[in-house]
């Protein structure tokens, strides 16, 4: 691997700010045709007005994926709903210094490969034909390959033989070469027409479950996607507008949090809501499970971190000051890596001893972190500097394409 050099931080990326609307409606999971489900004449659950019906979920083989039909239908749906969205008041144009997308950094279950997504700027400036995803060998930092996949977040299946990609029209299950295995349909605009259909995908530790969070305010559950692919429940969470997902270490507990809470815990095997945690009336960070099953989060304007233990008790503990809780990632040994609020410092915090180790030499601006499965290496992503790795002694840079 080659030594990294810091560069100037990136300008903000273009994005849509979404406005939520209708109240929650009861939904079912199963097969459906491609006709768009419209609203009805019934009031929403909170009496706020008609509650649009969510689409059902379905698994489709690549040969049965109606891509062009869905694309045309999506454009029509967005045209009808565009009045319900507000665009970024200061959108940024393409930047030649921006190399990677800040949302994606994921290591394969065996620790051998690392994946990150190219920034859209690369394609917009004609530097690549289409922005895809880059894969590196972690042992050497050398480029291993490039996946021709678009969309947003990416999650490895724990077996390492496939990935879930938040695609433009569906959750795309692909192999390590990017070839499609299945497409998971269902997410669709309901209250707003702008933004990505699938905002987040997450896989359970055992690979049994995949969860997807969409612009429609639903969280959809899928069992064994890429193989048998059984459709799970559609959780209609428009009453909290879900903002983040987190699987517990055992793989059957799923935490879903709204912007201001609550945090809802679901037992996927029992298909039950286990607990609803009141987070107050302020913005909260995405919840984070520690290896022992404790759940961490923070509330804006409040000091410290809230911790829900496995016995259900909740307490507040002092956390490191000056670090952004939304950046926290837990290692297998319980340590937590984090990024300073300005993004210029990467550190590792041991909650047991409360010791904080700052890792000097990180990029000027770091956007995302991920641990190796054995907790021996910490990987960091800078949209301008690329990917770097901390091996316990120094940061080392990964190869970037020309």
SS field, number of helical segments: 2
Query: How much of the sequence is in beta strands?
Result: 35-45%
Number of strands: 31
Structural class: mainly beta
Major sheet strand order: 2-11-10-9-8
Instruction: Give the overall pLDDT as a whole number.
Output: 85
Radius of gyration: 21 Å
Task: Based on the model shown, name its key terms.
402 residues, mainly beta, five-stranded antiparallel β-sheet, four-stranded antiparallel β-sheet, 2 helices, disordered N terminus
Description:
With 402 residues, the chain is mainly beta. Helices cover 5% and strands 36% of the residues. The chain has two helices and 31 strands. The chain has helices at 67-81, 120-124, and strands spanning 16-18, 58-60, 85-87, 100-107, 113-118, 133-137, 143-147, 154-156, 162-166, 171-175, 180-185, 198-203, 209-214, 218-223, 230-236, 242-247, 253-258, 263-267, 272-277, 288-289, 295-297, 305-308, 314-317, 329-330, 336-339, 346-350, 355-358, 368-371, 378-382, 386-390, 395-397. A hairpin with a 5-residue loop joins strand 4 (100-107) and strand 5. It is globular and about 55 Å long. The chain starts with 15 loop residues before the first strand and ends in a 5-residue tail after the last strand.
What would a concise description of this structure say?
This protein is mainly beta. It has helices spanning 67-81, 120-124; strands at residues 16-18, 58-60, 85-87, 100-107, 113-118, 133-137, 143-147, 154-156, 162-166, 171-175, 180-185, 198-203, 209-214, 218-223, 230-236, 242-247, 253-258, 263-267, 272-277, 288-289, 295-297, 305-308, 314-317, 329-330, 336-339, 346-350, 355-358, 368-371, 378-382, 386-390, 395-397.
């Amino acid at each position: 691997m080659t030594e990294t050099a810091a560069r100037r931080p990136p300008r903000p990326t273009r994005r849509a700010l979404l406005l939520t609307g209708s109240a929650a409606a009861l939904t079912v999971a199963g097969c459906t045709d491609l006709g768009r489900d419209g609203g009805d004449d019934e009031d929403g659950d909170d009496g706020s007005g008609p509650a649009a019906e969510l689409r059902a979920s379905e698994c489709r083989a690549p040969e049965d994926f109606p891509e062009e039909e869905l694309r045309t239908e999506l454009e029509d749906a967005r045209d009808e709903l565009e009045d319900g969205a507000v665009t970024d008041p200061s959108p940024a144009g393409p930047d030649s210094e921006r190399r990677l997308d800040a949302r994606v950094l994921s290591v394969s279950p065996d620790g051998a490969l690392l994946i990150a997504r190219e920034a859209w700027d690369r394609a917009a400036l004609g530097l690549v034909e289409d922005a895809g995803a880059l894969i590196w060998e972690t042992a050497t930092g050398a480029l291993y390959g490039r996946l021709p996949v678009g969309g947003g977040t990416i999650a490895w299946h724990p077996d390492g033989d496939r990935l879930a990609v938040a695609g433009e029209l569906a959750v795309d299950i692909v192999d390590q070469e990017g070839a499609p295995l299945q497409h998971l349909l269902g997410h669709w605009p309901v209250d707003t027409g702008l933004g990505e259909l699938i905002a987040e995908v997450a896989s359970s530790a055992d690979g049994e479950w995949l969860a997807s969070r969409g612009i429609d305010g639903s969280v959809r559950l899928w069992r064994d996607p890429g193989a048998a692919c059984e459709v799970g429940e559609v959780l209609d969470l428009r009453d909290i507008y879900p903002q983040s997902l987190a699987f517990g270490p055992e793989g059957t507990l799923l935490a879903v949090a709204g912007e201001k809470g609550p945090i809802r815990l679901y037992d996927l095997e029992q298909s039950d809501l286990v607990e609803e945690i009141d987070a107050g009336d302020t913005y909260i960070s995405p919840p984070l499970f520690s290896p022992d099953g404790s759940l961490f989060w923070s509330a804006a304007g409040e000091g410290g971190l809230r911790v829900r233990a496995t016995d259900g008790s909740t307490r507040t503990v002092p956390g490191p000051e000056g670090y952004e809780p939304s950046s926290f990632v837990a290692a297998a040994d319980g340590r937590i890596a984090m990024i300073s609020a300005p993004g210029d410092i990467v550190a590792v915090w041991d909650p047991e001893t409360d010791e904080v180790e700052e890792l000097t030499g990180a990029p000027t601006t770091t956007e995302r972190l991920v641990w190796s499965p054995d907790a021996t290496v910490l990987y960091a992503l800078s949209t301008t500097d690329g990917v770097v790795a901390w091996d316990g002694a120094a940061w080392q840079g990964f190869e970037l394409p020309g």
